[in-house]
């Protein structure tokens, strides 16, 4: 496609959501955008990065992506960006959750920079696309329209009456584009049926394309309070270890609002030209397990599965097995999700109710909504494979060249056994190497550190013993990753 405007494209990826409706696979500490709920080797976030990188070429200049996320996800974003070939991407950390309008404002302020005003292609990190070339084509059309100052939203053909999606009503414009006439939020079923029958409505994909200056001008016109408070936070930003941190005190004063409510719904009929480009690319917001079932390949009985699963006399059922064999017999229109520490069984049409279960577990201070059994850390991961009243057993992986913090525990001792790789151990004043099948003992109250000096992953088994085994019994003296 030609590029008469010579626009610079800045990919913006929103990666701060919690994804509670895909529990138990998705947890608040490791949400769905960093997982692959529909299968494959790449996470939803990585797929988003790779898809947007496909906009390069054809005369368009593509900047490194800007990722808007939060403190808890910063190292997952850093690792997955690097694995996606985008290690130079910018990571902006929201100090607090304030919805998508302030998040996009932070991205626009970062993208503008000295003398820059790129076209931002703004995508959620947790959506699925089955036809990437079709999406790339739609985005290129949207970029050309946005380069002239238009606000552009991608609309998905409404193939069925969905009550969980927002809708866009549009009409052909004289220049061949589609002019947005109205945004409608999540209608009831009879209204959704009328929308689909009329042919005038598309689903709102949540993918927006517009210049940084256009967003900031529209926000200033419609929500000057958000614009001013977010800019004050941006002006107070700091940078460390590649992370951009807006001022927390200032950001706490930013009103919480979505992109749609703050700006998009107000653009129709205003001086801001708002267009829609159809997106027919197998889009799904993957917002619930029913949506995952719809995106998966089905067998002759309509069943879909991931992992080690056996289905017998079952129809239209989704099974997601993570760590063991799952057998399902005589189930119709069901969802079964197995993880090492929790199992979900429900009717598919109850998928939206998962968030109520998560809320109930959270109210009871259960750990299951927060983290999976296998917890990712900037240095690797640990998997809590067994525990009792005075012991806990963990399988630990340390990435090549990585190191845990120099630390100490008041209430537990630790035994380390090397399973594979080479461990560099600091224990008190001593530093030594351990090879495969060798072990060591860390007494309670001793400073210690575990590092991987090798070029292959290090795996150890750690046996903790003591009166208290919580993760908060860690006193850090030095940490490569700036954790306290």
UniProtKB/TrEMBL annotation:
Single GO molecular function: isomerase activity
Domain annotation Nucleotidyl transferase: ranges: 11-297
Taxonomic source organism: Caenimonas aquaedulcis
Keywords assigned by UniProt, alphabetized: GTP-binding, Isomerase, Nucleotide-binding, Nucleotidyltransferase, Transferase
Protein name (record): mannose-1-phosphate guanylyltransferase
Reactions this protein catalyses: alpha-D-mannose 1-phosphate + GTP + H(+) = GDP-alpha-D-mannose + diphosphate
Source organism superkingdom: Bacteria
CDD domains to which the protein is assigned, alphabetical: cupin_PMI_typeII_C (cd02213), GDP-M1P_Guanylyltransferase (cd02509)
Enzyme Commission identifier(s): 2.7.7.13
Residues in coiled coil: none
Sequence ranges assigned to domain MannoseP isomerase/GMP-like beta-helix in this UniProt record: 310-360
Lineage: Bacteria, Pseudomonadati, Pseudomonadota, Betaproteobacteria, Burkholderiales
């Amino acid at each position: 496609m030609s590029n008469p405007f010579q626009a610079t494209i800045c990919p913006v990826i929103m990666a701060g959501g919690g994804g509670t409706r895909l529990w138990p696979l998705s947890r608040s500490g490791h949400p769905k955008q960093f997982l692959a709920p529909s299968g494959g080797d790449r996470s939803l976030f990585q797929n988003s990065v790779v898809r947007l990188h496909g906009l390069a070429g054809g005369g368009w200049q593509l900047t490194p992506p800007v990722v808007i996320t939060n403190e808890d996800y910063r190292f997952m974003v850093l690792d997955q960006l690097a694995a996606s070939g985008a290690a130079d991407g910018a990571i902006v950390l929201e100090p607090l959750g304030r919805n998508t309008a302030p998040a996009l404002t932070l991205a626009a302020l970062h993208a503008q920079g000295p003398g820059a005003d790129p076209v931002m292609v703004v995508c959620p990190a947790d959506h699925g696309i089955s036809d990437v070339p079709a999406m790339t084509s739609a985005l290129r059309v949207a970029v050309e329209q946005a380069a002239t100052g238009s606000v552009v939203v991608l609309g998905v053909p409404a193939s069925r009456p969905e009550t969980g999606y927002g809708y866009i009503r549009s009409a052909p414009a004289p220049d061949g584009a589609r002019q947005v006439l109205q945004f409608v939020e999540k209608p009831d079923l009879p209204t959704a049926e009328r929308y689909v029958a009329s042919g005038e409505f598309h689903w709102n994909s949540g993918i927006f394309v517009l210049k940084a200056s256009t967003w900031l001008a529209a926000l200033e016109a419609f929500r000057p309070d958000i614009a001013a408070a977010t800019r004050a936070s941006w002006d107070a930003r700091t940078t460390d270890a590649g992370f951009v941190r807006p001022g927390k005190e200032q950001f706490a004063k930013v009103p919480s609002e979505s992109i749609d409510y703050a700006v998009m719904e107000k653009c129709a009929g205003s001086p801001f030209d708002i267009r829609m480009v159809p997106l027919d690319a197998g889009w799904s917001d993957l917002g619930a397990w029913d949506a995952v079932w719809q995106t998966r390949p089905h067998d002759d009985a309509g069943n879909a599965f991931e992992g080690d699963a056996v289905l017998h006399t079952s129809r239209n059922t989704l099974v997601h097995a993570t760590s063991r064999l799952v057998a399902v017999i005589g189930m119709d229109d069901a969802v079964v999700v197995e993880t090492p520490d929790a199992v979900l069984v429900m009717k598919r049409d109850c998928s939206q109710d998962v968030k109520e279960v998560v809320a109930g577990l959270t109210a009871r201070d259960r750990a299951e909504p927060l983290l999976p059994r296998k917890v990712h850390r900037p240095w690797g991961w640990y998997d809590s494979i067994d525990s009792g009243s005075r012991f806990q057993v963990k399988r630990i992986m340390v990435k090549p060249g990585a190191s845990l913090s120099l630390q100490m525990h008041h209430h537990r001792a630790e035994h380390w056994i090397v399973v594979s790789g080479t461990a560099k151990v600091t224990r008190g004043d001593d530093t030594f190497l351990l090879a495969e099948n060798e072990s060591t003992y860390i007494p309670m109250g001793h400073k210690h550190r575990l590092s991987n000096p090798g070029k292959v992953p290090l795996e150890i088994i750690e046996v903790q013993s003591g009166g208290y085994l919580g993760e908060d019994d860690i006193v850090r003296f030095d940490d490569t990753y700036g954790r306290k």
